[in-house]
Design a protein that fits this description.
Number of helices: 5
Structural class: mainly alpha
Low-confidence stretches: none
Helix content: over 70%
Distance between the termini: 37 Å
Order of helices and strands: HHHHH
């Protein structure tokens, strides 16, 4: 989150496209806040919906710029895990389930 220079280097292949600064300011907070929410199981599906465009971009950057196979595999695995939790939900040990049972 603090290494914006590295994030800019990742976006070098698409730096001439419009809206790159908006994307850069979306990626870091969405990952930070989204990761915390997913870890606690709070608003899981909504948070994963916010993460999916970032993961698609992480997969696409490997094909546009320099191919890094380890980053590509990580992005694909995390993308598949997010798709699983998008359809399955957060489970019985999550904050979503706890708050639903309190009603």
């Amino acid at each position: 989150m603090f290494d914006s220079e590295m994030l800019m280097n990742l976006f070098k292949p698409i730096q001439n496209l419009a809206g790159v600064m908006i994307v850069i300011h979306y990626v870091a907070p969405a990952h930070f806040i989204g990761g915390i929410l997913i870890a606690f199981g709070l608003l899981t599906r909504w948070t994963i919906i916010a993460q999916i465009p970032i993961l698609i971009g992480a997969i696409a950057i490997n094909f546009v710029g320099e191919m890094n196979s380890s980053n590509l595999i990580k992005a694909i695995v995390i993308f598949l895990i997010c798709l699983f939790f998008l359809f399955y939900g957060s489970g019985k040990r999550s904050a979503d389930y706890y708050f639903k049972m309190q009603q």
